[in-house]
Structures are given as C-alpha cells and as structure tokens.
Amino acid sequence: MGLQANGIEVELVQGDITDQPDIDAIVNAANAELRMGGGVAGAIHRAAGSELDDETRPLAPISPGKAVMTSAPNLPNRHIIHCLGPVFGVDEPGSPILAGCYQRALELADDAGLESIAFPAISTGAFGFPMEHAAEVASRTVLARSGNLQSVRRMRWVLFSDDDRMLHERVFESVLNA
Ligand code: AR6
Questions:
Q1: 135: CA distance to ligand 1 center in Å?
Q2: What is the largest CA-CA distance in the chain?
Q3: Whether the model pTM is above 0.85
Q4: Hey, which of 87, 92, 116, 142 has its CA 20 to 30 A from 136?
Q5: Distance between CA atoms of 118 and 128, rounded to whole angstroms?
C-alpha cells in the first residue's frame, strides 16, 4: 500500500531486503563489527560476498544508533547503509537510539543524492524490540525527518512476514495520517 509523508512516498511491502532491484540503497540491520550475522545481516552478506567484508572491515566497529554506507557488491542496488540498532532493554534509551538509526540512514542517502531507500524492521529480530514499538519509532522518525530531505523521494519498509507488514501498515497509517 502507498502512504505519503511531506510529499515523500512511503511503501510497506512483504519481502526480502536483498530483492529490491528498483531501490538505490538498502539498509542492513547490522552488528557492531559489520560482519555476516543472522537475519538481515546474514542475507545481505551472503548475497554480497567477501567484497562487502573488505569494505566494511575498516569502518567497524560502530556504536548503537550509528550508520555507515558502502557499495552494494553483487546486489541490484547502488549502496548498502549499515545501521546498528539498539538491543532491546540493553542499549538505553532504546527509542531515541533506534530513531537515530533511521535518521542517519536517511541523511546518508540524501547526502549521496539518492532517490530511494529500503529498510528492514531494524532491531525487531535478534535484538528483541517489540514490532509495534519499533514501527511507531520508525513512522514518527519518517514524519519528523521527511520534510528536510532534498533527494530522497521514496522510502520502503520491507517486512519479512505478512503479519509484520499488516502491523506496520496500521501503525504507519495512524502516525502519518494523524
Ligand atoms: N529481509 C527482510 N527482513 C528480514 C530478513 C530479510 N532477508 N531477514 C530477517 N528479517 P534481524 P536485528 C526481519 O535479526 O534485530 C544479526 O544477527 C526479521 O524478521 O536481522 O536488528 C546481526 O548480525 C526482523 O523482523 O536484526 C546483529 O547481530 C527484522 O528483519 C543482529 O542480528 C530484523 O531482524 C541484529 O538484530
């Protein structure tokens, strides 16, 4: 389904973050070492291969709430933006740290002149954030930050299950249409 925030298109789809060929930058739910992991980081590093490790090694480690950008070897996108989300209940305060991830990723994409960016639901897997709470943080950050963007015109959330997509649809609709 399609929503808008300050004239920017916001899409919520069910799918795999490594299969978004019409998007300039995909976001990785990274670990601090920017290495292969489970979930999103596993899928991205598996698809990208060792060329990605060569790029990320000198940029690591990063701290919670931070993001760095690399190229996207062997993927259909121009860039990967690696975000380290907060571990729920450990990296506190969790909500502003998670909001910082989204904000920095949007800034990096915008500074690079990119038109489109696709996010997974950062911190909602291994890092334990409740999905609804994370969706509220993501949608509020979009609402707060989308007015400052110069080049980004399209944002997509790629949710792994249809239940997660429906939950995001409900939360984003209520925040963006309030
Ligand atoms: N495409 C889209 N979403 C996915 C995919 C995929 N291919 N795979 C999983 N998800 P997670 P985190 C969903 O654990 O919580 C890693 O091991 C998943 O269902 O990838 O930020 C890293 O190495 C969940 O809703 O990220 C870190 O150590 C969401 O993406 C740590 O986990 C995020 O799940 C990061 O944990």
A1: 14
A2: 45
A3: yes
A4: 116
A5: 21
pLDDT tens-place string over residues 8-64: 999 999 999 999 999 999 999 999 999 999 999 999 999 999 999 999 999 999 999
Expressed as residue numbers, the domain containing 21 is 2-176
Which residue out of 40, 46, 163 has the highest number of ligand 1 atoms within 8 Å of its CB and is therefore the one to mutate?
40
pLDDT of residue 51: 98
83 lines ligand 1 (CB under 6 A): no
Total tally of structural domains belonging to the chain: 1
Which atom of ligand 1 is the closest one to the Cα of 37? 23
CATH code: domain of residue 129: 3.40.220.10
Pair of tokens at residue 91: 């990296």
pLDDT of residue 1: 56
